[in-house]
Design a protein that fits this description.
Layout lengths: L1 H13 L1 H21 L12 E6 L7 H8 L7 E7 L7 H10 L4 E6 L8 H12 L4 E4 L4 E2 L4 H6 L7 E10 L5 H25 L9 E4 H5 L13 H10 L4 E11 L6 H18 L1 H6 L5 H11 L2 H26 L11 H16 L4 E4 L2 E6 L2 E4 L10
Parallel strand pairs: 1-2, 1-4, 2-3, 6-8
Antiparallel strand pairs: 4-7, 5-8, 9-10, 10-11
């Protein structure tokens, strides 16, 4: 009797990811239905904008990324770049940008003037202070946009209840196995979590590829100065805006990023760092991810139960994951040739599960070749004890 109860309990737990998958499908359909129905975007709302871009070194295809912001169909905006110093590799390219687009308001700032762990955020502190306009659009340096970008992402601010705007992103072109794996991971794993969070609790975060807000809303939580020594600054900006009572809107609109993963090791380390940060910031939510991962549960059933039961679980897992990936990637984000990447779903799920397990044993993260511990939400450098010479 006890054995049967244990069997039923295990099979019930193993079915939990399928409940999550149904929620993903429902949330994704609701979200992307807006763009499919051609909902009005109020693109005539065009307040002056300051577009802020912290830069460190050169990303692949950096000039074309930056130039895409100079081709905006928008009446009044400025571009502000902030680099570490005059010797940064991006400076000649930015100077060329100014020559090629003399009609645009482009400024280059050198140095943040601050001593902070998060150099990107320190640069944003200076750029916000020196921006001429109230409305701010902030994005990473590897992002490429279409001419309608500013009109689209600024439009939701017409609603006074909206305090922040963010959007999804897709790769410009994947060439290597690692880049294909990264893309399938975003579409099949990362975005499903975001869309379920939106459906259940609203958007209380932002993605670094696009953050749209105002100087006033940033000042409401103390500005970037308040988070310059904390990890996951983009997530925090959205959360702190939402805590002021404003809505953060996620648009069914995607920008493009140029992939820079050149090895599985680089992808693995970056994902491990991000997941470790999430474990510290949302410990219970991170633990709950156990019930969103269908691959290990289905394999466990297949290895310990009769073939018919195992086949049912594995079949349901494969069907659900393929359907989710198609709905978000092909139908929602309009990605072509996605079917070629579908076998990578299992590879990604196995990798993501392994990384999730490893986060529970990690007390520090490695970022820009420096080890940090996360204490009370702050980054604290791990100082190695000096080696003592024995006498």
């Amino acid at each position: 009797m006890i054995s049967k109860v244990a069997d039923y309990l295990f099979l019930t737990l193993a079915a939990a990811p399928f409940i999550y998958y149904v929620l993903v499908l429902y949330s994704s359909w609701l979200f992307f239905r807006r763009s499919r129905n051609g909902t009005s975007k109020n693109l005539d709302f065009t307040p002056p904008v300051s577009n802020l871009k912290p830069v460190r070194g050169l990303d692949p295809e950096a000039y074309e990324n930056f130039a895409s912001y100079c081709r905006q169909d928008y009446p009044d905006y400025e571009l502000i770049f902030c680099v570490g110093d005059e010797n940064d590799a991006s400076v000649p390219l930015l100077q060329k940008l100014m020559r090629d687009f003399p009609q645009r308001q482009i400024r280059i700032l050198y140095g943040s003037g601050r001593n902070a762990i998060n150099d990107k955020v320190a640069k944003l502190v200076r750029m916000v202070n020196e921006a001429r306009n109230e409305v701010l659009v902030i994005n990473d340096s590897d992002v490429r946009v279409e001419p309608d970008y500013l009109r689209t992402v600024v439009a939701p601010l017409r609603n006074a209840k909206v305090g922040g705007v963010t959007c999804l992103y897709v790769s410009t072109q994947d060439k290597t196995f690692t880049q294909h794996l990264q893309s399938i991971g975003m579409i099949s794993d990362f975005y499903p979590g975001i869309l379920v969070a939106r459906q259940l609790d609203g958007i209380k975060f932002a993605l670094g590829q696009t953050i749209v807000t105002t100087r006033s809303h940033l000042a409401g939580f103390g500005g970037y100065e308040a988070i310059e020594n904390r990890p996951a600054d983009d997530l925090l900006v959205g959360r702190l805006i939402a805590e002021q009572g404003f809505e953060v809107e996620l648009l069914p609109y995607a920008v493009k990023t140029v992939p820079d993963y050149d090895s599985m090791k680089a992808l693995f380390i970056k994902r491990l760092r991000w997941m470790t940060v999430m474990r510290h910031m949302r410990p219970w939510g991170h633990l709950g991810l156990a019930f969103t991962q269908g691959l290990p549960w289905s394999l466990a059933v297949a290895l310990t139960y009769p073939a018919t039961i195992g086949f049912a679980y594995v079949g349901a897992y494969v069907f659900s994951r393929v359907l989710i990936t198609w709905l978000i990637g092909a139908w929602g984000l309009r990605q072509r040739g996605l079917w070629k990447k579908l076998p990578l779903i299992v590879v990604w799920d196995a990798t993501a599960f392994m990384i999730w397990l490893l986060t529970f044993g990690r007390k520090s993260i490695r970022w820009r070749n420096v080890d940090y511990r996360i204490r009370e939400g702050m980054l604290v450098p791990v100082v190695q004890a000096p080696v003592q010479n024995s006498q």
